[in-house]
Amino acid sequence: MPIDIDIAKVARLARIALGEEELERYGAQLTAILEAAEQVQALPTEGVEPTSHPLPSTNAFRPDVVTASLPRVEILAAAPETEDGYFKVPRILEAP
Amino acid sequence: MSGWEAVVGIETHVELQTASKMFCGCPVVFGAEPNTTTCPVCLGLPGAMPVPNEEAIEGILRIGTALDCEIAEHSVFHRKNYFYPDLPKNYQISQYDVPICHDGSVEIDVDGDASVIGITRVHMEEDTGKSIHVGEGGRIHGAEHSLVDFNRSGVPLVEIVSEPDLRSPEQAREYGAELQRIVRALGVSDVRLEEGSMRFDANISVRRAGDVEYGTRTEVKNVNSLRSLQRAIAHEIERQIGVLESGEPVVQETRHWSEDLGATTLMRSKEESEDYRYFLEPDLVPMRVDASWQARVREALPELPAARRARYKGLGVDRRTAAVLAAAPDIADLFDAAVSAGADVRLSGIWVTGELVAYLRAGDRALDETAVEPDHLAELSAMVTGGRLSATAAKEVLGGVLDGDGSPGEVAAARDLLQITDAGAIESAVAAVIGEHADAFAKLREGDEKVLGFLVGQVMRATGGKADPRQVSELLRSKAGG
Protein backbone atom coordinates (compact mmCIF):
# COMPACT_ATOMS: atom_id res chain seq x y z
CA MET A 1 0.00 0.00 0.00
CA PRO A 2 1.46 3.39 -0.92
CA ILE A 3 2.14 5.64 2.06
CA ASP A 4 0.39 8.99 1.87
CA ILE A 5 1.29 11.28 4.72
CA ASP A 6 0.10 14.85 5.25
CA ILE A 7 3.32 16.11 6.80
CA ALA A 8 2.02 19.68 7.12
CA LYS A 9 -0.88 18.46 9.24
CA VAL A 10 1.38 16.30 11.41
CA ALA A 11 3.64 19.30 11.99
CA ARG A 12 0.67 21.54 12.80
CA LEU A 13 -0.70 19.03 15.36
CA ALA A 14 2.71 18.93 17.05
CA ARG A 15 3.05 22.74 16.91
CA ILE A 16 6.30 22.47 14.95
CA ALA A 17 6.88 25.18 12.39
CA LEU A 18 8.47 23.67 9.28
CA GLY A 19 9.68 25.44 6.13
CA GLU A 20 9.08 24.14 2.59
CA GLU A 21 12.44 22.38 2.46
CA GLU A 22 11.94 20.82 5.91
CA LEU A 23 8.45 19.62 5.03
CA GLU A 24 9.92 17.75 2.10
CA ARG A 25 12.89 16.32 4.02
CA TYR A 26 10.94 15.20 7.10
CA GLY A 27 8.08 14.02 4.94
CA ALA A 28 10.45 11.69 3.13
CA GLN A 29 11.98 10.46 6.40
CA LEU A 30 8.59 9.80 8.01
CA THR A 31 7.45 7.99 4.90
CA ALA A 32 10.47 5.70 5.14
CA ILE A 33 9.65 4.97 8.79
CA LEU A 34 6.05 4.17 7.96
CA GLU A 35 7.17 1.92 5.12
CA ALA A 36 9.28 -0.04 7.59
CA ALA A 37 6.26 -0.33 9.86
CA GLU A 38 4.21 -1.57 6.90
CA GLN A 39 6.69 -4.40 6.41
CA VAL A 40 6.36 -5.46 10.04
CA GLN A 41 2.59 -5.18 9.78
CA ALA A 42 2.60 -7.60 6.86
CA LEU A 43 3.88 -10.42 9.08
CA PRO A 44 1.38 -13.15 9.97
CA THR A 45 0.34 -12.50 13.59
CA GLU A 46 -2.54 -14.88 14.00
CA GLY A 47 -2.45 -16.42 17.46
CA VAL A 48 0.11 -13.88 18.71
CA GLU A 49 -0.97 -11.83 21.77
CA PRO A 50 -0.72 -8.07 21.14
CA THR A 51 2.17 -6.43 22.97
CA SER A 52 1.14 -3.26 24.78
CA HIS A 53 4.42 -2.83 26.60
CA PRO A 54 7.89 -4.32 26.11
CA LEU A 55 8.22 -5.13 29.83
CA PRO A 56 6.54 -8.42 30.83
CA SER A 57 5.02 -6.76 33.89
CA THR A 58 1.58 -5.53 35.03
CA ASN A 59 0.09 -3.55 37.95
CA ALA A 60 3.12 -1.49 38.92
CA PHE A 61 1.13 0.56 41.45
CA ARG A 62 2.04 2.61 44.49
CA PRO A 63 0.13 2.82 47.79
CA ASP A 64 -2.00 5.94 48.34
CA VAL A 65 0.52 7.77 50.49
CA VAL A 66 1.19 11.52 50.48
CA THR A 67 4.77 12.65 49.93
CA ALA A 68 6.24 16.15 50.06
CA SER A 69 5.41 18.65 47.31
CA LEU A 70 7.89 21.21 46.04
CA PRO A 71 8.09 24.67 47.64
CA ARG A 72 6.20 27.17 45.49
CA VAL A 73 9.08 29.63 45.24
CA GLU A 74 11.14 26.87 43.69
CA ILE A 75 8.64 25.88 41.00
CA LEU A 76 7.71 29.46 40.14
CA ALA A 77 11.38 30.36 39.79
CA ALA A 78 11.41 28.28 36.60
CA ALA A 79 8.47 30.17 35.06
CA PRO A 80 8.98 32.98 32.51
CA GLU A 81 6.24 35.01 34.21
CA THR A 82 4.28 34.70 37.46
CA GLU A 83 1.57 36.64 39.29
CA ASP A 84 0.24 36.18 42.84
CA GLY A 85 1.56 32.63 43.13
CA TYR A 86 0.26 31.62 39.70
CA PHE A 87 2.00 30.84 36.45
CA LYS A 88 1.13 33.70 34.11
CA VAL A 89 0.48 32.76 30.48
CA PRO A 90 -0.32 34.86 27.42
CA ARG A 91 -3.83 35.19 26.00
CA ILE A 92 -5.14 31.70 25.11
CA LEU A 93 -7.89 32.52 22.59
CA GLU A 94 -8.61 35.69 20.63
CA ALA A 95 -12.07 37.18 20.98
CA PRO A 96 -14.39 35.42 18.49
CA MET B 1 -40.81 20.43 20.29
CA SER B 2 -43.63 18.43 18.79
CA GLY B 3 -42.51 16.31 15.85
CA TRP B 4 -38.92 16.29 17.15
CA GLU B 5 -36.99 13.92 19.37
CA ALA B 6 -33.90 14.83 21.37
CA VAL B 7 -30.95 12.44 21.67
CA VAL B 8 -28.58 13.12 24.56
CA GLY B 9 -25.47 11.42 25.89
CA ILE B 10 -23.51 12.65 28.88
CA GLU B 11 -19.83 12.52 29.80
CA THR B 12 -19.39 12.79 33.54
CA HIS B 13 -16.07 13.52 35.20
CA VAL B 14 -15.62 12.51 38.83
CA GLU B 15 -12.54 13.46 40.89
CA LEU B 16 -11.65 10.67 43.26
CA GLN B 17 -11.01 11.61 46.86
CA THR B 18 -7.79 9.73 47.39
CA ALA B 19 -5.16 11.04 49.79
CA SER B 20 -2.58 11.49 47.03
CA LYS B 21 -2.73 12.25 43.30
CA MET B 22 -3.07 9.74 40.45
CA PHE B 23 0.57 9.42 39.48
CA CYS B 24 2.50 11.11 42.30
CA GLY B 25 2.42 11.57 46.06
CA CYS B 26 1.19 15.20 46.11
CA PRO B 27 -1.88 15.59 48.32
CA VAL B 28 -5.39 15.92 46.88
CA VAL B 29 -6.88 18.99 48.58
CA PHE B 30 -9.51 21.49 47.52
CA GLY B 31 -8.94 25.18 48.11
CA ALA B 32 -5.20 25.14 48.92
CA GLU B 33 -3.05 28.17 48.06
CA PRO B 34 -2.25 28.08 44.31
CA ASN B 35 0.68 25.93 43.21
CA THR B 36 1.48 24.56 46.67
CA THR B 37 0.71 20.88 45.97
CA THR B 38 2.86 20.11 42.95
CA CYS B 39 5.98 18.13 42.11
CA PRO B 40 8.00 17.22 39.01
CA VAL B 41 5.46 14.53 38.02
CA CYS B 42 2.29 16.65 38.09
CA LEU B 43 4.16 19.66 36.65
CA GLY B 44 5.29 17.52 33.73
CA LEU B 45 8.99 18.25 34.25
CA PRO B 46 11.31 16.31 31.93
CA GLY B 47 12.35 12.90 33.24
CA ALA B 48 9.63 12.60 35.89
CA MET B 49 7.97 9.19 35.93
CA PRO B 50 4.32 8.50 36.81
CA VAL B 51 3.31 5.60 39.09
CA PRO B 52 -0.44 4.83 39.36
CA ASN B 53 -2.18 5.12 42.71
CA GLU B 54 -3.64 1.72 43.62
CA GLU B 55 -6.45 3.28 45.67
CA ALA B 56 -7.63 5.23 42.60
CA ILE B 57 -7.77 1.99 40.60
CA GLU B 58 -9.86 0.48 43.42
CA GLY B 59 -12.11 3.54 43.24
CA ILE B 60 -12.78 3.29 39.52
CA LEU B 61 -13.39 -0.45 39.85
CA ARG B 62 -16.01 0.27 42.51
CA ILE B 63 -17.70 2.80 40.22
CA GLY B 64 -17.57 0.48 37.19
CA THR B 65 -18.91 -2.46 39.18
CA ALA B 66 -21.72 -0.35 40.69
CA LEU B 67 -22.68 0.71 37.15
CA ASP B 68 -22.92 -2.95 36.18
CA CYS B 69 -19.96 -2.69 33.79
CA GLU B 70 -17.78 -5.41 32.47
CA ILE B 71 -14.32 -5.06 33.99
CA ALA B 72 -11.50 -5.46 31.49
CA GLU B 73 -9.05 -8.06 32.70
CA HIS B 74 -6.38 -6.29 30.68
CA SER B 75 -6.29 -2.53 30.09
CA VAL B 76 -3.75 0.13 29.24
CA PHE B 77 -3.08 3.87 29.55
CA HIS B 78 -2.74 6.15 26.52
CA ARG B 79 -1.43 9.64 26.01
CA LYS B 80 -4.01 12.12 24.74
CA ASN B 81 -2.00 14.87 23.10
CA TYR B 82 -3.18 18.47 22.98
CA PHE B 83 -1.83 21.90 23.79
CA TYR B 84 -3.31 23.95 26.56
CA PRO B 85 -1.67 25.98 29.33
CA ASP B 86 -3.24 23.94 32.16
CA LEU B 87 -1.76 20.72 30.76
CA PRO B 88 1.97 20.96 31.46
CA LYS B 89 3.06 17.74 29.73
CA ASN B 90 1.13 18.64 26.55
CA TYR B 91 -0.63 15.31 26.99
CA GLN B 92 -3.08 13.90 29.45
CA ILE B 93 -2.62 10.34 30.65
CA SER B 94 -5.95 8.73 29.88
CA GLN B 95 -7.38 5.53 28.42
CA TYR B 96 -8.40 5.08 24.81
CA ASP B 97 -9.40 1.85 23.10
CA VAL B 98 -9.09 -0.44 26.12
CA PRO B 99 -10.83 1.26 29.08
CA ILE B 100 -10.82 -0.50 32.43
CA CYS B 101 -14.66 -0.70 32.62
CA HIS B 102 -17.17 -0.86 29.76
CA ASP B 103 -20.72 -1.82 28.77
CA GLY B 104 -22.67 -1.05 31.92
CA SER B 105 -26.03 0.51 32.64
CA VAL B 106 -27.92 2.54 35.20
CA GLU B 107 -31.66 2.64 35.77
CA ILE B 108 -33.35 5.99 36.25
CA ASP B 109 -36.90 6.94 37.12
CA VAL B 110 -38.55 10.21 36.12
CA ASP B 111 -41.98 10.58 37.75
CA GLY B 112 -42.53 6.83 37.80
CA ASP B 113 -41.30 6.41 34.22
CA ALA B 114 -38.30 4.03 34.41
CA SER B 115 -35.61 3.70 31.74
CA VAL B 116 -32.26 1.97 31.47
CA ILE B 117 -29.39 4.20 30.34
CA GLY B 118 -26.41 2.42 28.82
CA ILE B 119 -22.90 3.16 30.06
CA THR B 120 -20.44 2.95 27.17
CA ARG B 121 -17.29 3.12 29.23
CA VAL B 122 -15.73 4.22 32.51
CA HIS B 123 -12.07 5.11 32.19
CA MET B 124 -9.22 6.37 34.36
CA GLU B 125 -7.35 9.60 33.70
CA GLU B 126 -5.79 12.58 35.43
CA ASP B 127 -7.25 16.03 35.97
CA THR B 128 -5.65 19.16 34.51
CA GLY B 129 -4.63 22.37 36.27
CA LYS B 130 -7.03 25.27 36.63
CA SER B 131 -6.81 28.54 34.76
CA ILE B 132 -8.21 31.90 35.71
CA HIS B 133 -8.79 34.28 32.83
CA VAL B 134 -7.97 37.90 33.56
CA GLY B 135 -9.97 40.63 31.80
CA GLU B 136 -13.07 40.24 29.59
CA GLY B 137 -15.17 39.26 32.63
CA GLY B 138 -13.25 36.02 33.21
CA ARG B 139 -14.12 34.57 29.80
CA ILE B 140 -11.31 32.85 27.92
CA HIS B 141 -12.06 34.63 24.65
CA GLY B 142 -10.09 37.83 24.43
CA ALA B 143 -8.92 37.69 28.04
CA GLU B 144 -5.82 39.78 28.66
CA HIS B 145 -3.84 36.84 30.02
CA SER B 146 -4.46 33.79 32.16
CA LEU B 147 -3.15 32.50 35.50
CA VAL B 148 -2.55 28.80 36.03
CA ASP B 149 -2.73 26.81 39.25
CA PHE B 150 -1.41 23.24 39.00
CA ASN B 151 -2.74 21.97 42.34
CA ARG B 152 -5.49 20.06 40.52
CA SER B 153 -3.07 18.72 37.90
CA GLY B 154 -2.85 14.96 38.34
CA VAL B 155 -5.85 14.49 40.62
CA PRO B 156 -7.40 11.06 39.83
CA LEU B 157 -10.27 11.58 37.42
CA VAL B 158 -12.86 9.04 36.33
CA GLU B 159 -14.78 9.64 33.11
CA ILE B 160 -18.18 7.97 32.79
CA VAL B 161 -19.54 8.00 29.23
CA SER B 162 -23.22 7.25 28.68
CA GLU B 163 -24.81 5.90 25.53
CA PRO B 164 -27.00 8.44 23.68
CA ASP B 165 -30.00 6.94 25.47
CA LEU B 166 -31.39 10.06 27.14
CA ARG B 167 -34.41 11.65 25.49
CA SER B 168 -35.25 14.70 27.60
CA PRO B 169 -33.64 17.35 29.83
CA GLU B 170 -35.49 15.83 32.80
CA GLN B 171 -34.03 12.38 32.13
CA ALA B 172 -30.56 13.90 31.79
CA ARG B 173 -30.91 15.63 35.14
CA GLU B 174 -32.11 12.46 36.87
CA TYR B 175 -29.26 10.49 35.27
CA GLY B 176 -26.77 13.01 36.68
CA ALA B 177 -28.46 12.90 40.09
CA GLU B 178 -28.47 9.10 40.19
CA LEU B 179 -24.76 8.96 39.25
CA GLN B 180 -24.06 11.43 42.03
CA ARG B 181 -26.00 9.29 44.53
CA ILE B 182 -24.25 6.10 43.42
CA VAL B 183 -20.75 7.58 43.63
CA ARG B 184 -21.54 9.13 47.01
CA ALA B 185 -22.78 5.77 48.31
CA LEU B 186 -19.48 4.24 47.17
CA GLY B 187 -17.56 6.78 49.23
CA VAL B 188 -14.93 7.36 46.55
CA SER B 189 -15.67 11.05 45.90
CA ASP B 190 -17.49 13.88 47.61
CA VAL B 191 -19.19 14.60 44.21
CA ARG B 192 -19.57 18.31 44.95
CA LEU B 193 -20.69 19.93 41.73
CA GLU B 194 -20.07 23.42 43.05
CA GLU B 195 -16.42 22.55 43.74
CA GLY B 196 -16.00 20.74 40.44
CA SER B 197 -15.40 17.27 41.85
CA MET B 198 -18.25 16.17 39.57
CA ARG B 199 -18.73 17.81 36.16
CA PHE B 200 -20.87 17.16 33.09
CA ASP B 201 -20.50 17.61 29.33
CA ALA B 202 -23.60 16.90 27.27
CA ASN B 203 -23.75 15.74 23.65
CA ILE B 204 -27.03 16.81 22.15
CA SER B 205 -28.75 16.31 18.81
CA VAL B 206 -32.32 16.35 17.56
CA ARG B 207 -34.10 14.36 14.86
CA ARG B 208 -37.59 14.09 13.42
CA ALA B 209 -39.70 11.78 15.58
CA GLY B 210 -39.49 8.30 14.10
CA ASP B 211 -36.11 8.88 12.36
CA VAL B 212 -33.47 6.21 12.94
CA GLU B 213 -30.40 8.26 11.98
CA TYR B 214 -28.99 10.65 14.59
CA GLY B 215 -28.82 14.34 13.77
CA THR B 216 -25.59 16.37 13.93
CA ARG B 217 -24.61 16.83 17.55
CA THR B 218 -23.12 19.64 19.55
CA GLU B 219 -21.26 19.32 22.81
CA VAL B 220 -22.10 21.62 25.72
CA LYS B 221 -19.41 22.18 28.32
CA ASN B 222 -19.15 24.03 31.62
CA VAL B 223 -22.27 22.58 33.19
CA ASN B 224 -21.73 22.57 36.94
CA SER B 225 -25.06 21.91 38.56
CA LEU B 226 -27.91 19.50 37.95
CA ARG B 227 -30.20 22.44 37.33
CA SER B 228 -27.79 23.84 34.74
CA LEU B 229 -27.58 20.43 33.09
CA GLN B 230 -31.33 20.37 32.60
CA ARG B 231 -31.51 24.01 31.48
CA ALA B 232 -28.52 23.78 29.12
CA ILE B 233 -29.93 20.72 27.38
CA ALA B 234 -33.42 22.22 27.13
CA HIS B 235 -31.95 25.38 25.62
CA GLU B 236 -29.74 23.51 23.16
CA ILE B 237 -32.61 21.28 21.99
CA GLU B 238 -34.72 24.35 21.30
CA ARG B 239 -31.85 26.13 19.55
CA GLN B 240 -31.18 23.17 17.26
CA ILE B 241 -34.86 22.76 16.38
CA GLY B 242 -34.98 26.48 15.58
CA VAL B 243 -31.92 26.17 13.30
CA LEU B 244 -33.34 23.13 11.47
CA GLU B 245 -36.82 24.60 11.09
CA SER B 246 -35.34 27.71 9.50
CA GLY B 247 -33.76 25.40 6.90
CA GLU B 248 -30.16 25.67 8.17
CA PRO B 249 -27.99 22.70 9.17
CA VAL B 250 -26.78 22.16 12.74
CA VAL B 251 -23.00 22.65 12.85
CA GLN B 252 -20.91 20.20 14.86
CA GLU B 253 -19.23 22.34 17.49
CA THR B 254 -18.46 22.77 21.16
CA ARG B 255 -20.68 25.23 23.00
CA HIS B 256 -20.36 26.88 26.36
CA TRP B 257 -23.28 27.05 28.81
CA SER B 258 -23.70 30.41 30.44
CA GLU B 259 -25.87 30.28 33.54
CA ASP B 260 -26.22 34.08 33.48
CA LEU B 261 -27.39 34.25 29.87
CA GLY B 262 -29.45 31.08 30.22
CA ALA B 263 -28.05 30.12 26.82
CA THR B 264 -25.26 28.23 25.10
CA THR B 265 -22.69 30.15 23.06
CA LEU B 266 -20.13 28.96 20.52
CA MET B 267 -16.80 27.90 22.04
CA ARG B 268 -15.00 26.27 19.12
CA SER B 269 -15.80 24.40 15.95
CA LYS B 270 -14.92 20.72 15.94
CA GLU B 271 -13.19 20.52 12.57
CA GLU B 272 -9.55 20.57 13.61
CA SER B 273 -9.68 19.91 17.32
CA GLU B 274 -10.36 16.19 17.45
CA ASP B 275 -7.01 14.73 16.45
CA TYR B 276 -5.46 13.82 19.80
CA ARG B 277 -2.80 11.51 18.33
CA TYR B 278 -3.44 8.92 21.02
CA PHE B 279 -0.63 6.49 21.59
CA LEU B 280 0.25 3.97 24.30
CA GLU B 281 1.77 5.54 27.41
CA PRO B 282 5.26 4.01 27.37
CA ASP B 283 5.93 4.98 31.02
CA LEU B 284 3.18 2.72 32.37
CA VAL B 285 2.82 -1.05 32.21
CA PRO B 286 -0.65 -2.56 31.58
CA MET B 287 -3.20 -3.16 34.31
CA ARG B 288 -4.48 -6.62 35.03
CA VAL B 289 -7.67 -7.00 37.05
CA ASP B 290 -8.15 -10.74 37.44
CA ALA B 291 -11.33 -12.55 38.44
CA SER B 292 -10.45 -12.64 42.14
CA TRP B 293 -9.79 -8.86 42.27
CA GLN B 294 -13.09 -8.27 40.45
CA ALA B 295 -14.89 -10.51 42.96
CA ARG B 296 -13.31 -8.69 45.93
CA VAL B 297 -14.53 -5.34 44.59
CA ARG B 298 -18.02 -6.74 44.00
CA GLU B 299 -18.27 -8.19 47.51
CA ALA B 300 -17.11 -4.94 49.11
CA LEU B 301 -19.79 -2.79 47.41
CA PRO B 302 -22.21 -1.10 49.82
CA GLU B 303 -25.97 -1.17 49.28
CA LEU B 304 -26.63 1.07 46.27
CA PRO B 305 -29.36 3.75 46.10
CA ALA B 306 -31.70 1.72 43.87
CA ALA B 307 -31.53 -1.29 46.20
CA ARG B 308 -32.06 0.98 49.16
CA ARG B 309 -35.15 2.58 47.65
CA ALA B 310 -36.60 -0.85 46.89
CA ARG B 311 -35.91 -2.08 50.42
CA TYR B 312 -37.49 1.02 52.00
CA LYS B 313 -40.55 0.60 49.80
CA GLY B 314 -40.89 -2.90 51.27
CA LEU B 315 -40.57 -1.44 54.77
CA GLY B 316 -43.48 0.89 54.08
CA VAL B 317 -41.38 4.06 53.92
CA ASP B 318 -43.05 6.67 51.72
CA ARG B 319 -41.53 7.46 48.34
CA ARG B 320 -40.21 10.91 49.19
CA THR B 321 -38.56 9.80 52.43
CA ALA B 322 -37.04 6.77 50.69
CA ALA B 323 -35.60 9.05 48.00
CA VAL B 324 -34.04 11.39 50.56
CA LEU B 325 -32.55 8.45 52.47
CA ALA B 326 -31.17 6.78 49.34
CA ALA B 327 -29.34 10.02 48.48
CA ALA B 328 -27.69 10.31 51.89
CA PRO B 329 -25.98 7.04 52.88
CA ASP B 330 -24.81 8.20 56.32
CA ILE B 331 -28.29 9.34 57.34
CA ALA B 332 -29.81 6.18 55.86
CA ASP B 333 -27.37 4.06 57.89
CA LEU B 334 -28.49 5.87 61.05
CA PHE B 335 -32.12 5.24 60.09
CA ASP B 336 -31.44 1.54 59.49
CA ALA B 337 -29.66 1.14 62.83
CA ALA B 338 -32.45 3.01 64.65
CA VAL B 339 -35.11 0.78 63.10
CA SER B 340 -33.09 -2.34 64.03
CA ALA B 341 -32.91 -0.96 67.58
CA GLY B 342 -36.70 -0.90 67.61
CA ALA B 343 -37.54 2.65 66.48
CA ASP B 344 -40.80 3.24 64.63
CA VAL B 345 -40.22 3.38 60.85
CA ARG B 346 -42.54 6.29 60.16
CA LEU B 347 -41.40 8.45 63.09
CA SER B 348 -37.69 7.81 62.46
CA GLY B 349 -38.19 8.57 58.77
CA ILE B 350 -39.78 11.92 59.62
CA TRP B 351 -37.07 12.80 62.15
CA VAL B 352 -33.99 11.93 60.12
CA THR B 353 -35.20 13.42 56.82
CA GLY B 354 -36.85 16.40 58.54
CA GLU B 355 -35.33 17.70 61.79
CA LEU B 356 -31.95 16.04 61.36
CA VAL B 357 -31.39 17.17 57.76
CA ALA B 358 -32.53 20.71 58.63
CA TYR B 359 -30.21 20.72 61.66
CA LEU B 360 -27.21 19.61 59.58
CA ARG B 361 -27.96 22.14 56.87
CA ALA B 362 -28.49 25.04 59.26
CA GLY B 363 -25.15 24.49 60.96
CA ASP B 364 -23.34 23.17 57.84
CA ARG B 365 -22.41 20.10 59.87
CA ALA B 366 -21.75 16.47 59.04
CA LEU B 367 -23.72 13.72 60.76
CA ASP B 368 -20.70 12.51 62.71
CA GLU B 369 -20.34 15.96 64.25
CA THR B 370 -23.63 15.46 66.10
CA ALA B 371 -24.20 13.41 69.25
CA VAL B 372 -27.17 11.41 67.96
CA GLU B 373 -27.02 7.58 68.20
CA PRO B 374 -29.43 4.96 66.79
CA ASP B 375 -30.49 4.05 70.34
CA HIS B 376 -31.53 7.67 70.92
CA LEU B 377 -34.01 7.45 68.06
CA ALA B 378 -35.33 4.14 69.40
CA GLU B 379 -35.80 5.67 72.85
CA LEU B 380 -37.43 8.80 71.45
CA SER B 381 -39.74 6.66 69.34
CA ALA B 382 -40.79 4.57 72.37
CA MET B 383 -41.53 7.76 74.33
CA VAL B 384 -43.84 9.04 71.58
CA THR B 385 -45.65 5.76 70.90
CA GLY B 386 -45.99 5.24 74.69
CA GLY B 387 -47.69 8.64 75.04
CA ARG B 388 -44.99 10.12 77.28
CA LEU B 389 -43.91 12.70 74.74
CA SER B 390 -45.93 14.63 72.16
CA ALA B 391 -44.83 14.55 68.52
CA THR B 392 -44.08 18.27 68.72
CA ALA B 393 -42.05 17.95 71.90
CA ALA B 394 -40.17 15.00 70.35
CA LYS B 395 -38.74 17.34 67.71
CA GLU B 396 -37.47 19.70 70.39
CA VAL B 397 -35.98 16.78 72.33
CA LEU B 398 -34.24 15.58 69.17
CA GLY B 399 -32.68 19.03 68.82
CA GLY B 400 -31.28 18.73 72.35
CA VAL B 401 -29.95 15.23 71.66
CA LEU B 402 -28.23 16.49 68.49
CA ASP B 403 -26.65 19.30 70.50
CA GLY B 404 -25.20 16.72 72.90
CA ASP B 405 -27.46 17.56 75.85
CA GLY B 406 -27.97 13.87 76.68
CA SER B 407 -30.35 11.01 75.93
CA PRO B 408 -33.98 11.76 74.94
CA GLY B 409 -35.14 10.84 78.46
CA GLU B 410 -32.61 13.24 80.01
CA VAL B 411 -33.36 16.08 77.59
CA ALA B 412 -37.15 15.71 78.00
CA ALA B 413 -36.85 15.69 81.79
CA ALA B 414 -34.42 18.63 81.89
CA ARG B 415 -36.71 20.71 79.65
CA ASP B 416 -39.84 19.60 81.44
CA LEU B 417 -41.43 18.21 78.27
CA LEU B 418 -42.70 14.86 79.52
CA GLN B 419 -46.43 14.33 79.24
CA ILE B 420 -48.65 13.42 82.16
CA THR B 421 -49.43 9.75 81.79
CA ASP B 422 -51.01 9.45 85.23
CA ALA B 423 -54.70 8.85 84.44
CA GLY B 424 -55.85 10.38 87.74
CA ALA B 425 -54.05 13.68 87.13
CA ILE B 426 -55.54 14.04 83.65
CA GLU B 427 -58.98 13.08 84.93
CA SER B 428 -58.96 15.82 87.55
CA ALA B 429 -57.73 18.41 85.04
CA VAL B 430 -60.59 17.42 82.70
CA ALA B 431 -63.08 17.60 85.52
CA ALA B 432 -61.87 21.09 86.45
CA VAL B 433 -62.21 22.34 82.87
CA ILE B 434 -65.73 20.86 82.58
CA GLY B 435 -66.67 22.74 85.76
CA GLU B 436 -65.25 25.99 84.48
CA HIS B 437 -66.76 25.75 81.00
CA ALA B 438 -70.11 24.13 81.69
CA ASP B 439 -71.76 25.85 78.69
CA ALA B 440 -69.25 24.49 76.24
CA PHE B 441 -69.44 21.05 77.78
CA ALA B 442 -73.24 21.14 77.49
CA LYS B 443 -72.88 21.83 73.76
CA LEU B 444 -70.55 18.88 73.44
CA ARG B 445 -73.16 16.72 75.14
CA GLU B 446 -75.68 17.87 72.52
CA GLY B 447 -73.30 16.56 69.88
CA ASP B 448 -71.61 19.85 68.91
CA GLU B 449 -68.14 18.56 68.03
CA LYS B 450 -66.92 22.09 67.27
CA VAL B 451 -66.34 22.83 70.96
CA LEU B 452 -64.21 19.70 71.47
CA GLY B 453 -61.06 21.45 70.26
CA PHE B 454 -61.68 24.36 72.61
CA LEU B 455 -62.12 22.07 75.61
CA VAL B 456 -59.04 20.01 74.76
CA GLY B 457 -57.13 23.28 74.46
CA GLN B 458 -58.28 24.35 77.93
CA VAL B 459 -57.10 21.04 79.45
CA MET B 460 -53.77 21.34 77.65
CA ARG B 461 -53.40 24.85 79.06
CA ALA B 462 -54.27 23.68 82.54
CA THR B 463 -51.63 20.92 82.32
CA GLY B 464 -48.98 23.17 80.85
CA GLY B 465 -49.21 21.30 77.53
CA LYS B 466 -48.13 18.05 79.08
CA ALA B 467 -51.28 15.99 78.71
CA ASP B 468 -51.67 13.72 75.70
CA PRO B 469 -54.27 15.61 73.60
CA ARG B 470 -55.58 12.35 72.15
CA GLN B 471 -56.18 10.95 75.60
CA VAL B 472 -57.84 14.20 76.74
CA SER B 473 -60.24 14.29 73.84
CA GLU B 474 -61.19 10.64 74.38
CA LEU B 475 -61.86 11.36 78.02
CA LEU B 476 -63.99 14.45 77.20
CA ARG B 477 -65.99 12.47 74.63
CA SER B 478 -66.66 9.61 77.01
CA LYS B 479 -67.75 12.04 79.74
CA ALA B 480 -70.07 13.75 77.26
CA GLY B 481 -71.64 10.39 76.72
CA GLY B 482 -70.13 9.11 73.59
What's the topology here?
The complex is a heterodimer of chains A (96) and B (482).
Chain A: H1 7-13, H2 20-41, H3 72-76, E1 82-83, E2 86-90
Antiparallel strand pairs in A: 1-2
Chain B: E1 4-15, H1 54-66, E2 70-71, E3 74-75, E4 78-81, E5 91-94, E6 101-110, E7 113-126, E8 130-134, E9 145-149, E10 156-162, H2 169-186, E11 198-208, E12 218-223, H3 226-245, E13 253-258, E14 263-269, E15 279-280, E16 287-288, H4 291-299, H5 305-315, H6 319-327, H7 329-340, H8 345-363, H9 374-385, H10 391-403, H11 408-414, H12 423-436, H13 438-445, H14 450-462, H15 469-480
Parallel strand pairs in B: 12-13
Antiparallel strand pairs in B: 1-10, 1-11, 2-6, 3-16, 4-5, 4-15, 6-7, 7-10, 8-9, 11-12, 13-14
Helix pairs in contact in B: 2-3, 5-6, 7-8, 7-9, 8-10, 9-10, 12-14, 13-14, 14-15
Overall description:
The complex is a heterodimer of chains A (96) and B (482). Chain A has 96 residues and is mainly α. Chain A contains 3 helices and 2 strands. Chain A has a domain at 7-41. Chain A has helices at residues 7-13, 20-41, 72-76; strands at residues 82-83, 86-90. In chain A, strands 1-2 form a two-stranded antiparallel sheet. In chain A, a hairpin with a 2-residue loop joins β1 (82-83) and β2. Chain B has 15 helices and 16 strands. Chain B folds into 3 domains: 4-293, no CATH class; 303-414, no CATH class; 423-481, Arc Repressor Mutant, subunit A (Orthogonal Bundle), CATH 1.10.10. Chain B has a 9-stranded mixed sheet. At the A-B interface, α3 and β2 of A face α1, β8, β9 and β16 of B.
